[in-house]
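User: Hi! I'm working on a homework problem where we have to compare a predicted structure to a textbook description. Could you give me the structure for the chain below?
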Amino acid sequence: MRRAIHRLTGADLKRKVPGNYTDGGGLVLQVRPTSDGDGVSRSWLFRYATPSGERYMGLGSLTTISLSEAREAALQCRKLRFAGVDPIEHRNAERAARVVATAKAVTFDQCAAAYLAAHRNEWRSEKHARQWPITLATISPVIGKLQVSAIDTALVVKALTPVWNRAPVTASRLRGKVEAILDYAAVSGFRPPGDNPARWDGHLEHVFTATPPHKHFAAMPFAQLPDFMVKLRKIGSTVARMVEFTILCAARRGEVLGALWAEIDIVGAVWTVPAEHTKANREHRVPLSPRVLEIIEEQRRDRRSDFIFARIDGRKLSHDAGNALLEGFNLHGFRSSFRDWAGERTAFPREVAEAALAHRVGDAVEQAYRRGDALEKRRRLMDAWADFCAKPVPSGAVVSLKGRGHA
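Assistant: Happy to help. Predicted structure tokens:
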């Protein structure tokens, strides 16, 4: 009696007569003439019945798939049929999944580059944009070439540990960048959704020690400012004028270093800082006091380039320009000096002082209703600030500017 399964023998595999030769269990050896008519080709099929009729699933050529391998493949197909799964549809789904997986096979470095490209316009300066790839390069040897979907907590810790031991503040910022990139990867479908292995709260905080508290910018007490400004005015250099301009405008260093002549309206006495140069990424108008206009005129007489404060070769001043003149204080700290003076020595409303610093005041609803930028109110404030900075206080004198400015 002929067996119901495993019927074919070695001799059957050499058949030259075209036809279908059954091994049983749905496995079929198909013999067909070659296209040139000089021989035959032999390949494996799995035959099975469906409600719409018979279907044949190719399993491969006999030259590639042996008889035992074909029988194993047929067995797997029968198991799928027993589970109610169509083998051809199952194979198509697997192939589609592999295509998707290949499309999602993105390395950490590739995902980081995609994240940088997607968020490039959100950053406030070229320097900030350049810092990202430079910082990420420190961990690229560890995780850069790995599939972003495979990165877990152990790999993040391995990448961050050398940096954390050397510079914990830098490592803390780097960890935040890694967390943002892995979040981006999950949203983009490059890694499964779920907990982020670079998360700090309740996660990496148990691995690394907390970073030192943020060191605030050293601010000169505002009472010392008039005497300091007298000494500063005696220095006849572009750097000294840049420092004076920054203090009198209560501006950020980066905004002043990048200030262009095209941003200055002499007639209206306004400096318009474009959104891309501001920390808040929104345009900020700065009213210019008479002394600031004098500084601008001095710089105009010795104009070197499109930058208001430029080096001899016309390029922008370096970021640390002026540090040697600050008597140990930080240039950014003079914004705090201004804010303390406005709050303690004047009657100007808090929101006017905050607006002068380009700070947002109030919640989203309050901001929506405050459509103007209080330019003229701020002009009176900045004029009073310039007056204060220009007049050294006699020793022992008590000075109050209350009432000098009003909303």
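For your comparison, note the following. Residues 222-390 form a domain with the hpI Integrase; Chain A fold (CATH 1.10.443.10). The chain has 15 helices and seven strands. Good luck with the assignment!
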